[in-house]
Q: What sequence folds into this?
C-alpha cells in the first residue's frame, strides 16, 4: 500500500495556487465570456460547433427575453403541478410517488425534448468531425501499444534464452569442478597403509 501526501493550500506558493485553483480573475473572465456569448446570441450570430471562440451551450434560454420568460413559465408549471398534487395528497391522507413523477414528467416534457434535440446535434457533429480524428488517434495508440508489446516479448524471450545459456554453462562448470575434485582427491590413510604393509598385501 502506497501513501501519497497531498500538500495543503498553505504549503503551496501563490503561483502554484493560482495555477491549480480558479481565482477571482478566472471567474470574472468567465463571466465576461458569458456576457459576450449572450450578446452574440441576441444579435443573431451563429454559435455552433465550428465557432472555437464562442459557445452557446447552456445559454439557449437567454437568446431573448421571450426565451427567458418561456423557460421561467415552464419551470413554474413543473413546480406548481407537483405542489398542487401534494396538497391533494395531504388532504386525502395519501401519498402516490408514481402520480407525482408522472405530473413532473408531463410538465417537463418540453425540457426533455429540447435536451434530446441538442444531444442529437452534438452526436451528429461528433460523428462527422471529432470521431474520425479520435479513431485515427486511438488506432495509432493501439499500433504503438502492439509494437511495444512485441518488443517486450522479444526482450523477454532474449532474457530467457540468456538465462538458459547461463544456467547450462554453470551446470557444465559444476560438473567439471566435480570431476576435477575426484581426480585430485588424495588416497585415504588406510589405503596407503595397506599398500605399504607387506604382510597385509600378502594376506
A:
Amino acid at each position: 500500500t502506497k501513501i501519497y501526501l497531498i500538500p495543503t493550500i498553505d504549503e503551496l506558493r501563490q503561483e502554484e495556487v493560482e495555477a491549480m485553483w480558479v481565482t477571482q480573475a478566472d471567474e470574472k473572465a468567465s463571466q465576461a465570456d458569458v456576457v459576450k456569448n449572450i450578446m452574440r446570441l441576441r444579435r443573431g450570430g451563429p454559435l455552433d460547433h465550428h465557432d472555437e471562440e464562442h459557445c452557446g451551450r447552456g445559454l439557449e434560454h437567454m437568446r431573448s427575453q421571450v426565451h427567458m420568460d418561456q423557460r421561467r413559465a415552464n419551470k413554474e408549471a413543473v413546480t406548481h403541478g407537483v405542489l398542487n398534487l401534494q396538497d391533494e395528497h395531504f388532504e386525502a391522507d395519501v401519498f402516490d410517488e408514481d402520480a407525482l413523477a408522472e405530473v413532473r414528467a408531463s410538465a417537463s416534457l418540453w425540457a426533455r425534448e429540447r435536451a434530446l434535440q441538442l444531444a442529437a446535434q452534438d452526436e451528429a457533429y461528433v460523428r462527422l468531425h471529432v470521431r474520425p480524428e479520435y479513431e485515427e488517434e486511438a488506432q495509432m495508440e493501439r499500433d504503438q501499444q502492439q509494437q511495444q508489446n512485441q518488443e517486450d516479448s522479444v526482450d523477454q524471450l532474449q532474457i530467457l534464452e540468456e538465462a538458459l545459456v547461463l544456467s547450462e554453462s554453470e551446470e557444465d562448470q559444476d560438473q567439471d569442478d566435480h570431476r576435477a575434485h575426484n581426480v585430485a582427491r588424495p588416497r585415504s590413510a588406510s589405503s596407503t597403509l595397506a599398500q605399504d604393509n607387506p604382510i597385509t598385501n600378502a594376506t
